[in-house]
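Hello K.,

You asked for the raw outputs rather than the summary table, so here they are, unedited. I folded two proteins back to back in the same session to keep the settings identical. This is the first:
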Amino acid sequence: MKRIFLVEDDLSLINGLSFVVKKQGYELDIARTSCEADTIWADGKYDLVILDVSLPDGSGFDICRKIRQISKVPIIFLTAADEETDIIMGLDIGGDDYITKPFKLAVFMSRINALLRRSDNFSQADAELISNNIKIQLLKGEVYKNDEQLELTASEYKLLRLFMENPDLVLSPEQILSRLWDCDENYVDNNTLTVYIRRLRTKIEDNPSEPKKIRTVRRMGYKWNSAD
C-alpha cells in the first residue's frame, strides 16, 4: 500500500483530501503544522508528500528543503499563490508538482496517481546510466561527473535522467514537460523549463556558456550528446 504524507492546516481541505486519497486505497498520515511534520516525517517512509506552502508556524518550502536533504520522494505543493516566482521556487528546491487552490479533487487525484506511476517507473529501471562522463546510479539516486558526486535537485535529477535515457534524440519542450510534469495547466511553461536546463548545465557542463552535453536544437528542442 502506498503511503502519503499530507501537511495542511485547513481542516475542510484535509477532510476532502483524506476521503479521496483513502478511497483510492492509499494510506494517509496528516500534520497540521511544521512542528508536527518534523515529528511524523522522522517516524516513517512515504511514497509521496503533499505540502501546503503557508502553515501556521512556517512554510512548506522549508519542509521541502529538509526532506530533500535525505530523500527524493515525490513532493506536491498546495498553495493559494500563483505567482511565477513562487512556482519556480517550489520546483527549484525539489518540488515535483504545484497545485493552486481551489482545485477539483478528481484532478488532484490524477496528479497524485501520475506522480506515483512515474516514481515507480524510475525505480524499476536499470542500475546505472553512463554517458559523456556523467554517471547516474539509479537505485541510489546519485549523479557523478568524472567520479565526483553532484548535488542536484529532484527536478534536475529527473531532467538529466530523461535526457540520458534518450541519447542523441531531439526532445521538444512539450515532450519534456509532459514526461516530467503534468501540463494540463500552465503552472510549468517553456520559460520554467529553460531555467531548469540552464541550472542543470551549470552543474554538468565543463563550460555552461558553451554546452556540449545538453545541446539546444534551434526551433526543435534539446538533445543529450552521448559522445565524449
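The second followed immediately with the same parameters:
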Amino acid sequence: MARLFLFLSVLGKVLALVLWIRHLPPLFIAGAFILPDLFALYHLLAPSAQGFCRVFTRFETTRSEIWLTIDNGPDETDTPQILDLLDRHCARATFFVIGQRAAQHPALIAEILRRGHDLGHHTHTHPVRTFWFASPARVRAELDDALSALRATGAQVGWFRPPVGIKNFFLADALSARGLRCVGWSIRSYDSISRDPQNVARRVMAQLRPGAIIVMHEGERLDPRLRLRALEIVLDGLARRNFRCILPDPAQMR
C-alpha cells in the first residue's frame, strides 16, 4: 500500500506538469500536485486510517466487554497503584510500554504480568514528533530495541501501538517481519491533555460500546489531578454499567 501512495504522488506531479504545459488554471495544477501528498499525510497522521498499516480499532464480542489499554509506562509511581486499582475491579488491561522505561523498571514489567495483565509495544523512545518521517533504520531500531528490552525481562509481545497513533511509511513491513500487529483505539480518553478527571470519564462513557478499545495513559506527563483518579472514575463507571475489562483473543480483532 505504501508503494501505491508513492505512485500516486509521482503521478500527481506528472499530471501537474502536463496541466502547466497546457496552461490550465493554477488551481487545477496545485490540486494535482498537492492532493496525493495530503491524502498520504492523512493516512500517516490519522490514528484510525488504514492506508499505511492495518490498524485494529475494535474487537468482536456479543457481551458487555471492552479492552482497556494504558500507554507510556511503566511508571514507578503510577503503575503499582494502577495494578492495585485493576485488582479491586477484577479488571484486565494491556500496558503499552516504552522500551526505555521497561529497561529501567524490569520489576514493574514482571509485576504487570504476574497480576494477569498483558504487555504491548509502544516504541523504544516514544518519538512523537519524528516517528512519521523516520527512516527504515530508525523504525527498525525503535522496534528492535524495545523488543530486546522486553525480552530481557522474559516478556513476549504481539501488539504494537505507535506514538499518538501516528504511523510511518515503512511500518507495515517492519511489524510483519517481527510478528507484531498494530492496535489503535475506538475511545480516546484525552486524559493526556485534560485537567478534569470527571470530563475524561464522561467522554469515555459517552462512547462506550461492546468491543471498544479505550486508550488511557500513565506517568508524569499527565496532569497531577488526573493521575489515577481518571482511571478510577472510568472503572467505577464501567462497573455500574456491567462492562468487563478483558484481554481479547487475537481472533476477535477487527
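The mean pLDDT is 89.

Happy to rerun anything if the numbers look odd on your end.

Regards,
P.
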